[in-house]
Amino acid sequence: MLDDHFFRLYGNIQRSKWLVAVLTAVVIIAAVIGLKSVCFDNNIELMLPGNDEVYRSIRFLRESNLSDKVILSLGLKSSEYTTKDLIAAVKKIEESLGPPLVTDVISGIPENNVVEEMLELLKYAPQLIDEPNLLLIEKQINPSGVKESLQNNYRQFLTPASTLIIPFIRSDPLGIYSNILRSLQKIYSSVGYEVTVENGYFISKDRKHAMLILDTPINLTDGFGSRKLISYLNNRLNILPDFISADIIAGHLHTVSNEDVIKRDIRLTLIIASTAFILLFIVVFRDLGAIIIFLIPLASVIVSINISNLILNKLSYFIIGMGAVIAGIAVDYGIHVYTALRIGDSRQEAVKSIAKPLIIGALTTISVFASFFFSSVQGYHQLAFFSILSIILCLACSLFILPHFIIKGKYNKLAHTVKKYGKQINQRSLKEPKTQDKLIVLCWAIFMIIALILSKQISFNSEISQFDGSEIEIIKAEQKFNSVWVNKTSPAVFVVQENSLEEALKVNEKIYREAKTVVGEDNFSSLAAIWPSKQTREANVDRWKKFWKQGKEEKLRKLISTYGSDYNFSEDAFSPFFDNLYACTIVEDEPKRIKIYKRLKERFVIAKNNRLQVMSFFPDEDKYVNAMSTISCHYPGTFLVSRKVLSRMLSKSVSSEIILLSGIAAIMISLLTCLLLKNIKMTALALIPVITGTAAVIGIIPIFGLSLNAPSLIAAMVVLGLCIDYGIFMVYTCSRNLKTGTRMAVSLSAITTLIGAGVLLFANHPVLFSIGATIVSGVLFGYIASIIVIPSFYRLWIENTT
After folding, report:
1. CA–CA distance, 181 with 118 (Å, rounded to integer)
2. How far apart are CA 447 and CA 295, in angstroms?
3. How far is CA 15 from CA 8, 11, 409, in A?
4. Distance of CA 682 to the CA centre of its chain
5. CA-CA distance, 599 to 187, in Å (whole number)?
């Protein structure tokens, strides 16, 4: 019944082959034109497991870690120039930058403004000093406490730095605000930059580098905007003198570079693969018509890209990077059909003899990709849809269109080679197993044992950085920046997420109090240390007023007046303290006049999607992460972001994901192969290349110092689909004694696949390279097992027992 439908369709296409050819050409041309409108996405979330914690951490890191900021690091190239020349260059660049791409430039902090800002912040002491600190103040308001404070103040007046210190002493004679200043200093140090301020500019400790921090409305996920921003900055940096170097540090650079690297890799791999395919067919077949075999998978891939984009809206660059590999898989069908037509006597009989193993092979390969639909990774769904569609289109064209356009000649080199090769194979006795077969099986068994032993050395790389294929110049610039400016490793982050800032600050306070006991105050940097919630500040103000109006203010005035003259302090020396005692007792949501608070808020608060996130920082060490994780469990809406924990979560999620998909794929391949071949022994033989290819991947990769990652594991599953095809073709040929040049076709299929995957070894992007390395090692040994080991097993196990 199936054969009847197959040949009825085959006959109809034969009668209208030129109409079909024209329609096919129109579709392909439209698809080529349509490539310009295809939307690509380089978001790495597409390639990550559907784990809420992983997604949340990745999204948080992308949105908070300098996401919408750019840093310019300027440096002196020659010792002939001074910091003064460097600052002049900073001023020049600062003046040249502006909207719409740069909305703000922070080049430093004017020293006078720093003092004014600090004094302004101290006026908020009534809101910031809590009950325990009031008790400490009370202990100082006595003769001995005041005398000691005045004596310390007098000594500080005699130091060289007295000019800067005097305003602070006059505003705080007892040093009761010192905790506020210490908390502020600790918070600023948590930023992780080693910065000094010289003439109001950010200067490195070696005094050879300056830093500018730019605000931009361009999000780093905006590829077009990022490219425009980087181009704008590079144009502005051209005005710098020759003795000044400049590095751009921004996530936007990675966005642009990844796009460029992947596009360049795709172009390079397609050019190399296309050239190799065409030369292979011309040299082997010596027939220009053989080029059509390559055009079929290429056209199928192009059409599939358009259809996939239409249905899925966006395609990952990583998926499209698999295009050359998919072409290497799909070209197999055209090779088998072409070879069978050249060797066979009848066009229809040749197609009939090759159709069933082709369809079986295609179905088993499709089953591997179909298993990806069970994954929680969106990128795998794209890969499955794109790959299955490409394979179906290529198989249909190979069976129903290609045969009608192959001109059968009386003689060609391919036919002569295949017949000669087949004759030599058939001269061997199929009745008695040969010693050579036993030797081959023994060598295969030894290889498998060695591969399994070597597989113990394999490791899994779950670092997010492996998905970043940015150019080496960007990585070097960041390393240089870190060596100059960064004084510590990236900390872990505790995030409080609420609907409003006030709600978030309330929870943040509670977290801070608990964190101080389990992590230590010096190890936990929180906004709560300097700016608590409005509710807490209102309570602090009430206590403050009550404290001073119960006679403490009058008592302190008398003590200072009594003992101040001993150190030559005038009556109004400390008037700023008393004048501002109740200055900021009206509680507001935010201190709009203080720029310091604005900078702190930028550091500790993120507003995204109508949600407020307040961050705190602590060392990314297991003991601290574990302690804070325990606290987080008691506060819904809070979470931790730790690069170390994220790496472990990724490793665990990817491992469980791949184990699930591998199990599904293995079951589907085994059941489908057994169902189609209808023989358990034949199924076992067909699986030999699959087992061999898998062993080769996990055994050979460690030898070259490589490790497995998510993309290479997916590529390993592709190897399963490829190797089962080889196994099915060889088992089918051995059992049916086909004269359709299967061995030659399988060899050419493996070569084309190795070309398609091998070109990825020339790719600069680490993801594409890992895919290429995995497929090449797996397919190479899977092919050797199919062409050499299967026939030996067949003669020893099946024909010797029948």
Report:
1. 8
2. 37
3. 11, 6, 21
4. 43
5. 11
Please return the burial class of 344, using the count of CB atoms within 10 Å of its CB with bins 0-12, 13-18 and 19+.
Answer: buried
Burial class (CB in 10 A: 0-12, 13-18, 19+), 99: exposed
Residue 106 Rama label (left phi>0; alpha psi -120 to 50; beta): beta
Element (H, E) at 235: helix 223-237
As averages over each run of 10 residues, the pLDDT of the chain (802 residues) reads: 62 76 86 79 62 66 62 88 90 89 80 71 86 87 89 80 77 83 68 69 86 83 81 90 88 79 74 72 66 81 86 72 65 78 68 78 81 79 85 86 68 49 44 71 90 80 63 79 73 87 90 89 85 90 91 89 85 87 82 76 78 85 87 88 74 71 78 76 86 87 75 78 82 69 74 77 75 86 90 77 52
% helix, strand, coil for the chain, step of 5: 70, 10, 20
Q: Which two tokens stand for residue 574?
A: 């400390």
Cα R_g (the chain), whole angstroms: 36
Structure tokens at 402: 């290609």
Given its phi and psi angles, is residue 741 left (phi above 0), alpha (psi -120 to 50 degrees) or beta?
left
- From residue 391, how far is each of 272, 288, 296, 402, 721 by CA, in Å? 21, 24, 10, 15, 12
Cα(43)–Cα(41) distance, integer angstroms: 6
Cα 317 to Cα 311: distance, rounded to the nearest angstrom: 16
**Of 455, 334, 437, 314, nearest to 385 (Cα)?**
314
The first and second tokens of residue 275, run together, are: 């050239």
Q: How many CB atoms lie within 10 A of CB 85?
A: 14
- The CA-atom distances, in angstroms, between 659 and each of 371, 667, 710, 711 are 12, 12, 12, 14
Residues in Cβ contact with 728 at an 8 Å cutoff, skipping those fewer than 6 apart: 357, 360, 361, 364, 673, 676, 677, 686
* Stated length of the chain: 802
CA 734 distance to own-chain centroid: 46
- 3-class secondary structure per residue, 346-389: CHHHHHHHHHHHHHHHHHHHHHHHHHHHHCCCHHHHHHHHHHHH
Q: Is the dihedral of CA 169, 172, 173, 179 positive or negative?
A: negative
Distance CA 91, CA 259 (A): 33
Q: Are 687 and 720 in contact (CB under 8 A)?
A: no
72/250 Cα distance (integer angstroms): 9
Residues 762, 769: Cα–Cα separation, whole Å: 7
What's phi and psi for 366, nearest 5 deg? -60, -35
* Other CB atoms within 10 Å distance of the CB of residue 246: 19
Single out the residue of 533, 483, 530 nearest to residue 507, CA to CA.
Answer: 533
Rounded Cα distance between 391 and 441, Å, is: 33
pTM for the whole structure: 0.63
